[in-house]
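Running co-folding for adenosine-5'-diphosphate.
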Amino acid sequence: MLSIQQLNKTYSNGVHAINNVSLDIPNGLFGLLGPNGAGKSSLMRTIATLQEPDSGRIEFNGLDVLRHKEELRRKLGYLPQDFGVYPKVSAEDLLHHFAVLKGLTQRSERKEAVEGLLRQTNLWEARKRGLGTYSGGMRQRFGIAQALLGSPKLVIVDEPTAGLDPDERNRFLNLLAEIGEQVVVILSTHIVEDVTDLCPRMAMISKGRVLIQGEPQAAIEGLRNRVWRKRIAKAELTDYQSRYTVLSTRLVAGHPQINVFSELPLTDGFVQVEPDLEDVYFLQLRAARGV
Ligand code: ADP
């Protein structure tokens, strides 16, 4: 269990990137969902002990993380947002190299770990190829393979699905869910479906603050009977946006289809729909913006 209490960080330019954040994160895949600039990377880097908060506490299975950084790092697997690779080096060679850095100095043990991870991430066949020839999805899977060296108990992956096609994204998320069965895996993302599909728990953040945390399903239940849908004409959109709490607009066969939040039943062509996590997310973001 990872426990974060009243964490704060203000950068020298005055941005309050982590604003009194408290989170409890059990084993399993935990989705940290928020728009660009919400503070996800700042929070991830702080948990990964790459930067200091101004105040607050982080505890991992009883370990005071901010006091015992080295100890946390031994338990940590981290895939940063801007994970770079050496294009000419093969996946196998680079993974061996990272394994040595992780302290796997014994050759047979290292070989076994590297082979196991290449197989687990489905890169075994491509292990001799230079990383420069890999697709985006393969590169991210390689990123996870290096993060998993040394059997970490805490795995942090920062926006790993950005830029992946749907197939690669699915494969990648399934891999994360598998890993999450035994350890804490924190996945930061701005893509709602990443969380809906696989995360048993999540938090939504914006402007450094936690908006809600818990089980996605419970948050969705909270909107039951209060989300309404209607297809409208393009010219009507501004009018609807001023009269209703419009959560989202989607073009269906060229016409806007809006999802609206309303406590009271809506008639006039609206139909009630099953809420989903996207409705929760947009309602939370609206509330955070004070609209
Ligand atoms: P996210 O990962 O959700 O996109 P970030 O943690 O990268 O969010 O950024 C949160 C806010 O902090 C943004 O306003 C960003 O511009 C600002 N920020 C991030 N890193 C720094 C930094 N090193 N110095 C100053 N401001 C920063």
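Result summary
DSSP finds ten helices and 14 strands in the chain.
The mean pLDDT is 94.
Job closed.
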